[in-house]
Amino acid sequence: MGQNLVLNMNDHGFSVAVFNRTAQKTQDFIAGPAAGRSTIIPAFSVEELVASLQVPRKVMLMVKAGEVVDQYIDTLIPLLEPGDIIIDGGNSHFPDSARRTDYLESKGLLFIGTGVSGGEEGARNGPSIMPGGSPEAWKHVKPIFQAIAAKVPSGESCADWVGSGGAGHYVKMVHNGIEYGDIQLINEAYQLMKDGLGMSNEQMHRTFSAWNNTELDSYLIQITAEILAAKYDDGSYVIDTILDTAGQKGTGKWTGINALDAGIPVTLIVEAVFARSLSALKDQRVAASRILRGPETRFSGNRDAFLEDLRLALLSAKIVSYAQGFMLIREASEKHDWHVDYGNVALLWREGCIIRSVFLGNIKTAFETNPDLDNLLLDDYFRDLIHAGQLAWRRVITQAVTLGIPVPALSSALAFYDGYRSERLPANLLQAQRDYFGAHTFERTDGPRGEFHHFDWIGSGAAAVSGTYNA
Q: Coil, strand, or helix at residue 327?
């Protein structure tokens, strides 16, 4: 991604100096992809790199998240002057970006921690860019970032300021969490088609291609269709040779952990993370498959009707995924005083990034219409889509359970929807149980919120001894 961002910047008229700790990689880049570009300047030491830059210097790191970022920052600090800018374009954890912002500002320097999404292709042709950190730095990098970023059909750039401190990398973290959810939902649809309906790769390819011309139009649906059609030279399908065990780099896990810390029920993303963890237990699953039995039922309904149900179920669950993601961003923005523009976040994701999809435009409209919207499910457009698709959604999950095909993301999304729309949940019993065994107290339906009571369940006559608190 680093070299493609350099080429992208250079295409847009910016002179760029480049450095890699392995000198041969720098030489290969200059002699290869950057050949003939006199305004891409090679440097073979950090000192040489810094010396080649105009003030205020803008140094962008594209390295692995973690300790190595801090090491490069500490190497750069003595070489820079007040007002110079260090940019971290990797997938850093947002608390690290908040810490680095404060640290560099204390040195008279500026910091930007920016999410960059779109992979190698996006970096070369137009990524989604989500910068945060020192607000004073934005005016210096804005012309560069907005020039190289993807553009929506109306011409707006998918690069804009998100907020101070760790806001940029936080929004990128949630982006990646939603990506986990989207991918898992598509995988569940794929398994239902393959194992439930017995569809061939070509049939599934045609189905996903058709879906990409509906409200599901998105990058991930598009590439899924292409993946299912890809063949080796001998005519065999690539997808059939790939081992069913998935990897992860941690951003989905970070999203889940932060959601738990914040008390925001981002259930679909967490299920998607655990689905990858379950896939990694390949040897255990192989052994278990020889011991544990499931239903022997076969699908006997109308396949075309079920595929339409599946499309609507996928769309409905996808809406829940984004709704949960924006709930988490709202909570963090309010906690850290970031003043995130939620409609603008949808714009940043509209093109260039992995989760880009048509209905992000509808998300932008929803927040422009009502900036104080608590949940996307309450917007007229998304409410109507859910209402139109929920019976199909329920039929798909019922059929999956009957066939013994796991659909953790589809079903957790529906459980969230049913919970969120419920005026009354069984937490009254939960609070009674907590009060019974631990004197944790409860609020009453006939009293004001914030007033807590204890009932003497076992007739001991003892007063409540446990305070009320949130852990």
A: helix
